[in-house]
Amino acid sequence: MKITILTFGLLILFSFSMCAQEKEPEFETPAHILVFSKTSGFRHESLSSGIKMLFDLSKSQNWVITATEESSAFNTEILSGFDVVVFMNPTGDALNASEQVAFENFMKKGKGMVGIHSAADFEYEWPFYGELIGGYFKTHPPAQTGTVIFENFDHPAMKPFKGMESYTTFDEWYTFRENPRPKVNVLATLDEGSIKKYKNDDWRMGDHPIIWWLEKDGMRSFYTGFGHTHEAFQDEKVKVHIKNAINWAAKRID
Question: Is the pLDDT of residue 12 over 80?
Answer without folding.
Answer: no
